[in-house]
Structure formats: C-alpha cells, structure tokens
C-alpha cells in the first residue's frame, strides 16, 4: 500500500550538524562512478560503483569481459547471476502482466477463492459480493507478505501463509461506505491472513483440503505476550477480549517454523463516530484521525470508535508483530509486544551471534524509524525453557551518523531518560514511537521491507519515497525524494551489536534514463547467491506498471523479470526450498476498477479485478532470478 499520508513525527529529530555538506560529499563519491548507459543496456548505481550490463540487445552476443569504465565502474561480466531476458520498458504496461520470455506464470488464489481449491467462492461478478459469513472462509484481499512453509521437501507442497493488507470499500463492498454492520464485517473478514495448503499437481499449483488451513481476520481471537501483555493500556472498560489483526503488510519467518504478520496502517481503521473525540498526544503521533482511511468501521463497530470510552484502549491493541503457527489451525495468534508498537512493515529475522534471533523492522511513515529486536539469548535454549525468543530481548531504534556509521539505541525503561517519560516497559512499548523520538532516532524516508543477504551478510532496507523531505541528510540524501532508495547496512558483531556501518546501495533516481529504471522500492528478498529481488509500489517511470526486478548485488546488473497490471502493486515474495518456483502478488489490480483491468479474468469480461498470487518459474526449470 502506497500510504503517502500525513506526517505524525513532529519530534524534530535532525541529528546531523552539516547535512548538506555530508550529502554533497557523499553524492560526489557516488557520482564518480556514474557512466552513461549503452543503448538498451541496464545501468545501475550500486554502492560507489556504476555498472553497465553489456547485454545482447543489439549484437546478440553476451559481453564476456569485465573492464573498468570511468572511476570505479565496471562492465558486468556475462554469465553472471542475472541472465534472463529483461522485460523491455515498452512492454511493461497494460491490463495484464508481462513476464520475461524466459519465464512463465500461473495465477493462484485470487481474492474470494475457496481455501481448499473447491468450486465456489467469489469470482469477480461486479453485481455481487461475498456475504460477510462467506468471506470468513474465503481468501482475503490485499495480498501482501507471505511465506511458504515446506511439507516434505517443500518443492511441490507446503503451507502458504499470506497477508491480506487492505481493500478499499469500493473494491470489497462495491460502494464507498458501509451501510450496515454486515458491510463492516465483510470488510473485516477480507482483511487479515490466510493459511492454506498448496500443492503442485499436474504442473500447476493449487490449494488442497487441509486440517491446518484457516482464515485469521479482524474478529479472530488473539492473545498478547511479552512485556506489555496484561498492561492496563491493553484493557478496555468494556472487558472485551483481544481480537483481530489488521493491515497485515509484510512478514517474517522464524527459525522454529512460525509466520509473523506485521500490522502496518492500523490507525486508518479507527474513526470518531460521534464527533466528540480529542486525540491524545500518543494518538496524534500514531496518526489517528476522525475518519481514518474512510473504512467507516467506527459507525457500526464500537471497537473502532475512538470516541467510545468503553473501548478507549482498543487502538493500543494494533500495531504489533503477530506470530502464527502455519501448521496448527488451533493455535491462537500471539501479538509479540517486545517487538514494539508502530506501523510495522515487516520483521526480517536472522540468527545472529550466540544463536540470538534478530529482527529488522521498518516503521513505514514519512520520517519514521528503523528498528531491530535482539532476543535475550540463544533461541533454541530459550524455547527449550518454554520462553519465546520474541518475548524477551532488546528493542533498538536506529540513529544514522553522517560518516557512514550508526548506533542502535535501546528502548528500555532502564534508561533514565525513558523512565522519566514512562512508568514501565509495557507503557513504553505501547508508545514505542514516542520513546524513539526521545532518544533521537533518525527520521527516514518511509522504511519498508528489510532483507538480510546470506551472500554477504549485509542488511538491505527499502526507503520507498518521501515527497515531503525538505532537509536532506546522509542516509536520506534527496529532498524531496520521490523515487526512493535502498540502504545497505553492515550490522557489526553478527547482527547483535549496538553499532553499525551503512551505505547507500542504490538511489532509484539514478536508474532513470536506463533500461533498468524503477522507483518506489518496497518488497525485497536477497537470495543466497547474491541476487536482490526488488518489488515496487508507486507510479513507475516511462509508463511502466509496478514491477519485479532482480539485481546482482556484486555487479549492479539489473533486469526486469515481471510487470503487473495497471494500478497494481507488486509485493510479497516467497520461494520453494529449491528456488525453482517463485511466488509474488499483484495487490489492488486496477485499484479494483473493472474498467481498468479484469485481471485475472479475461479482458472484456467485466469482472472485478482481484488481488492474486502469481506463481513464476523459469521455462527451463532453473533457479528463479537467474
Ligand atoms: Fe504495507 Fe509500507 O507497505
Ligand atoms: Ca509501499
Ligand atoms: Ca509495502
């Protein structure tokens, strides 16, 4: 979701003394490596190097040598990691997807599909919608982060956990506003998570009957764990037990086989039904407003009415990382409060020094922060003692210095500055953003996905854009920054330390004018060979639809593997263990308007376009991205 909404960070954190000077010196270093692209060749600026991919567009011959061009630039060697035929800019837009000629795709689980692949469900008839009761047991809308949990070797069978981030009323309800509680329930049931069992049968992936398939939505029972569990700020006078997850954006996966769904723009589902609500400072900081995103839930469901004193703390129950067991449909989803409350994009987990689990997390709003969580000790020993590694540990927020270093600032009540502000760790965590403001975290250009590369041990963070930045700083060097960029973080001490080094990996604007052009990086995944998959969410240059690109991290070579349909977003990414099958999503195709696209139904059918998973394979059965 390209949520380029208001600015709620008024902390004024600007930790750089000489930001313009820093920006210019850093940009000069980068600019040295810039070279002109040869016709039809992708040029990318990566780190301090620019590279030209000497492709076969004009000669039919792959270049076979590496040479230095200008200062620090090289021509990428052919036979590298990214060898597929790129989707040309000229072919990258339309009402149906386009894929590299070396690849093929199939559509899986459009919104409204049954969970077990049986007939029925909602097929996109513009004159009807599912009932709320039906939607409870159908695939939701707003396909986003997901992961495939293997069954057997996992290469043709697994449990797919997939987020349903959002679906506007015109798409889900077929009208701009709900007019009944039934409408609100339909909307609520279309959100959340699906867990389904999928299998490759006759060369096609499809859902199958499963004891562990389930829908988790806004009215599903959930529980809290960690330092804020049981805190009065998570209780309501109404006494209602915790329910639901919403605006499930990106994901995480734990070494012990569970799925993490991350609650992003939760504030947009609340509103003021009576015109009597006055925001607290904290509510203001989290962006709550009288109408939210216009879902209108507050008018029929008191939980989402900010003015209803019986539900005064309901808003605190969202904005968390939620753990789901994809192999046990009876498990109650757990909100892991130790990981903080903010507009969680995702939770990229790796295992660091001492077997600790480390989660990298973005708070996607203009001028919000990058966080990491480090478990107290070895995850295996914690679990052996019956303790979740996600319940005990340290939560940090990032402060970037202009010299390419940075610090992880711990958000702990043991810090006197924070104990002067909050009475206990639970209160601090409910108000994570406020604590991070106090410590002087660095405001970023909308942190989206993070991915840790097992190839080089670096952490990549997508900063999608920031139309309202007026003051550049070293890690956010463009003001404004309409195209976004990607940071590369070298997190010292095997991810568990309190200092780091960083660099700009790529400024999206530097791809303009090249065949590898993209803007608004959002979803990312680094494969173990050294490829970085980049998904975009925002108006793309040169008429392109949103896209999936693959970058060779070492050489900077970029190729375009897939483009979506008009007005969609490409997001979500998972692979089979053998990496011969890649799954991505098209979210909000045509913004739900059947006059724009009918995907995945045939064009001209008049069907409502439906968010779908796209299953991608190389025609020769090779590693995806190669
Ligand atoms: Fe849900 Fe920031 O994307
Ligand atoms: Ca986005
Ligand atoms: Ca996103």
From TrEMBL:
InterPro entries xrefs: PhoX (IPR008557), WD40/YVTN_repeat-like_dom_sf (IPR015943)
Comp. bias regions, Polar residues: 595-605
Any one Pfam family match given in the protein's UniProt record, by short name: PhoX
Annotated spans, Disordered: 586-609
Signal peptide: none
Xref: PANTHER family: DUF839 DOMAIN-CONTAINING PROTEIN, SLR8030 PROTEIN
Name of the protein: Phosphatase
Species, as recorded: Halomicronema hongdechloris C2206
